[in-house]
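Reminder to self: tokens first, then the designed residues, so the page reads top to bottom the way the pipeline ran.
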């Protein structure tokens, strides 16, 4: 029972932090537009976060395999709080690019290391449900954040949301510092982190398939987050409407985490991921055809279900592969988040270029096509119906891939 207490507190802390993050991210494009940012510059604003995280998280993941997870999570949450306050002194779009880059560095200390800590506590064969539960806390914060942020933005201004993010992250810092600890039973890995360790993992075809599929899906999601606010504004809807639509997307994604995690522990994770990610890509491509609030809401809800089903399956696959390859879980989760970062860099940038050249609608079509390509690559590289590692004990089922 005591082992569950750190995970519960960690999940609660991540919920608090993501509530603050979710309250500002949907409105950054509007904030940047007020400063005169072009669509391409908005791509840089969102891409800077992922680029900075990509540079640092492999090394940080390796350090956490040797030194423990908690110090890095605490440092990241505190750094995110400081970064939020710096947003108040941004006076140009390029200031936002720099601050988002700093946020990316602090994020490298938080998300991959938190996922690694969850993996440290997770028994073999239960990866889906454990990460489904953790994702529930994370996505619930991201889901409620846009709703709260939209109401605050409309009635008190965006500056208040920056103060809110700083306060939320500081609260999460205190929670982790006081109540979270690393499991005593985990043996620290001596292998190095950094790019070399990540590339070594990607030589495995299954890990490469997971990586490519995750990167493609995140390209479409990065474009979705960047340009949905502008699509909503073009339809004449309010910031509160945007907050409700974004919150609905994240909340339905949250609701399906637990059942999707249980499915991932019982059935083929590849098959579930392929079907759900294909639906997600198609739904994103249909967004420009939605003319009003209810059309956007319906597509956003359906997309949230599709993306939500895929997430615990892909995470569980990555954990299982990391264990099979006997890699440190900090490095393994760094590779998994690296795929997400790559997509978040490429998606907004590619979408921004497409929007400037051919119109905003084209950005949704092009990035969705990349998501479909990633799914096809995973189908080739990962064989459905085979286990990723042998059962640890006689009679213990191995998790399906």
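Designed residues (401 positions):
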């Amino acid at each position: 029972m005591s082992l569950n207490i750190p995970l519960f507190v960690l999940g609660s802390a991540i919920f608090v932090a993501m509530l603050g993050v979710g309250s500002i991210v949907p409105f950054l494009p509007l904030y940047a537009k007020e400063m005169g940012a072009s669509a391409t510059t908005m791509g840089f604003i969102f891409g800077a976060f992922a680029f900075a995280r990509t540079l640092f998280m492999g090394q940080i993941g390796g350090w956490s395999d040797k030194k423990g997870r908690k110090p890095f999570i605490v440092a990241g949450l505190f750094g995110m709080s400081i970064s939020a306050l710096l947003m108040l002194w941004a006076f140009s779009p390029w200031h936002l690019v720099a601050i988002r880059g700093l946020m990316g560095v602090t994020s490298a200390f938080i998300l991959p290391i938190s996922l690694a800590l969850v993996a440290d506590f997770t028994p073999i064969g239960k990866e889906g449900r454990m990460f489904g539960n953790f994702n529930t806390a994370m996505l619930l914060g991201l889901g409620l954040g846009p709703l709260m942020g939209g109401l605050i933005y409309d009635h008190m201004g965006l500056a208040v949301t920056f103060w809110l993010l700083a306060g939320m992250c500081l609260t999460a810092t205190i929670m982790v510092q006081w109540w979270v600890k690393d499991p005593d039973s985990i043996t620290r890995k001596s292998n190095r982190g950094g790019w070399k360790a990540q590339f070594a993992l990607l030589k495995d075809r299954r890990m490469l398939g997971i990586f490519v599929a995750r990167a493609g899906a995140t390209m479409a999601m990065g474009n979705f987050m960047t340009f949905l606010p502008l699509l909503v504004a073009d339809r004449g809807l309010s910031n509160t409407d945007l907050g409700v639509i974004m919150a609905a997307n994240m909340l339905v994604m949250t609701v399906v985490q637990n059942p999707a995690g249980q499915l991932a522990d019982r059935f083929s994770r590849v098959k579930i991921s392929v079907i759900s990610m294909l639906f997600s890509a198609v739904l994103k491509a249909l967004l420009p055809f939605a003319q009003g609030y209810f059309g956007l809401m319906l597509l956003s809800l359906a997309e949230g279900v599709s993306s939500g089903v895929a997430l615990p399956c892909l995470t569980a696959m990555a954990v299982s592969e990391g264990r099979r390859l006997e890699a440190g879980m900090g490095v393994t989760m760094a590779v998994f988040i690296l795929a997400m970062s790559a997509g978040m860099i490429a998606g907004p940038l590619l979408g921004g270029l497409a929007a400037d050249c051919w119109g905003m609608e084209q950005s949704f079509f092009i990035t969705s096509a990349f998501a479909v390509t990633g799914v096809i690559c995973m189908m080739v590289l990962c064989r459905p119906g085979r286990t990723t590692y042998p059962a640890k004990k006689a009679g213990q089922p191995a998790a399906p891939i």
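The two ends are 29 Å apart (CA to CA).
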